[in-house]
Structure formats: structure tokens, C-alpha cells
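User:
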Amino acid sequence: MRIVLLNDKKTERDAIMRALSSASYRAEGTADEQAALSAIAREAPKIVVFSVPSKGGADLIRRIKGADASGQAYLLALFDSAPSAKDLASVVEAGANDFLRRPVVDVEFLERLKAPCRVVNWVRSLATSATFDLATPVDVGGLQAWSSLGALVAGDLAEMAGQPFVVTKAWPKRFVHALRSATIPMSLAGDQLEVRISIVVDAVTLKWVKEALLGDPNASAEAADDALRELANTAGGALKRAALAENVALTTGIPSTDNSAPPFEQHSCWTLTLDGNDCCVAIIGEIRQRANQRVAASQLAEGMILAHDVRNEGGILLVPAGSRLTGTTAVKLAKLLGPRFFLEVAPAA
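Assistant: Predicted structure:
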């Protein structure tokens, strides 16, 4: 097991290195922060032991986590005497897994290093237990907002069109060709989920869109596409508001248009029909897993969605989890955090 030790006290550092060597750990010790970060970045350690500075302990932890490409290092903090409740809370909140007060006693220290293995064994023991779940992912398909999506969108479209819609949970039977669609991606980055809401129309309904929503039956294809994207935005907004009432915060992306329809057979689908009119609109909802990426701050780009909060060295929130980065924000974070800091993001849609 590889361990990186960042310790500013030479005598203590040397004693810890001897204890690690006698316990057959592969360790690398230094008093220099940059050297420690380079060692972490060069080869991800299983454990990082570090001295907590009098100021900026939380920021040091974030730099350590940023250098750890694996994102799995166990962080053991060394405090001078007894830390205050505030200092301890800030270090734990920033990502420390355990702490130890000085002076360091070899027996206690080596037992603390066994904690990750004990945690792994404990989690494995829970794998078959139905009574304890460490992290229950959000079941978007089980939300009331999801089951009511057709009605929610119908209500918003009725206000735009000035006419009520009848909602049925099915694909329009008369849709056969000449389809046009607009899709808006939505993310739940913390759960690595992507939701896609699509508005699909045929040639007859597209003509109605031009007349009723644009006021011009001869509107260009580009203008009609703009209207469809706006309808997709409306649908996404309806779902987002309803999901937020169930404590689920979705992040919306940028809608796009296509001259086809998504594979509706595998997804939820609703038909919105105008009473006494041949026009109908299909709403398609798709939920799928989408793996997050771990990228250096210097590689942040517009459209990426943060899976976790980003805070400064004082613990002040800079950008909350779920934020979709603008180009300006991506550049600012890259400059502020530096190339050694890594973040988990949902890729841009």
C-alpha cells in the first residue's frame, strides 16, 4: 500500500517514515507541499497523511484531492493538540476521512491506517442488507413530476396556444413520416443521470405551430425550429419546477432540433391533442445513465455540469453542485484552482 506523507516537522516525519517502513508500507515523505502534490499526481496513493496548517487546512485538502487522479485516496489529517470544533468541521467537510492529534503514537497511528480496509469490509457486509443503503440514487422515473409530465407540458402549452390539450400516454398513431423534433438535455450530475425531453411534431402540426405560435403560416424552417426549441425549453422547465418540489434539482442544457424522432418505444411517451383539430404533439421522456468525467480545472469547458460544490480556501461556496458552466465561469475557475485541481463533471451535452 502506497502512502504519501506531508509533514512539516522533521523529527516527527522521520519517526513516522520509520514506523511505515517497519510495517511494510511503501511511503514517500516530504515537508514541501508542492513535492507532495507532485507525488500524489505521479502515482495515486491509497492514503495521504498530512499536517493541517494553522490557516487554510480546507484549501490544502482540496489541492490534495485535486492532485489525486483516482479520487479515492483516504485522507488522514494531523492536528496540533486538540482542534477546535470549527477547524475540525471545516477539514471534514472539505474531504478529510479521519484525524489524529499530536504527538503521534506509532501504535495508534498504524491502527488508523487500517481504517480504510475496515470501512471496505463494513460496506461489503452491507451489500446484502436491505435495511441500510449508503447512497440511494434518485429514481427520476418514480417521481410524481415524471408521471405527470404530459399533463404539466399540456398546461404550459395551453397557455401559449390559448387552447386546451387532451393528454394520452401513447405515441400518436397517425405519426408516420416527415417528423421534426426538438430535444432538451437535463442532468442530475451527482447521480450520473441524464434526462432528455423531446417535442415531436409531424408536417400537419408543424404548420399549426407556424400559424398559432408564430402567427405566420409561411414562416421559415429556421423560425419553426426556433419555436420547437422553445417548446422543448417549456417542457424542460415544467419538469424542472415539478421535480424541484420533490427536492430533485435538474440542470437544463441547450435544446437542439432534428428531422427525426427519438426511439420512443423504449421511453415514456405522451400525446397532446387539440380538441377538434388534427394537430397533436408528442412528448418523449428518456432517462439514462451518463458517466461523469474527472477533469483538471484547466480543462473545464462551457456546458460541463459540476457534480459537487466548489469552495474557496475559506469554505465559501464559489459554484454550487449542478451548475452548468458558462465559458466565462470555466475560465475563472481554471485560473482560480490551477491545473493540479481536478473536478467531477457531467460532460457537456
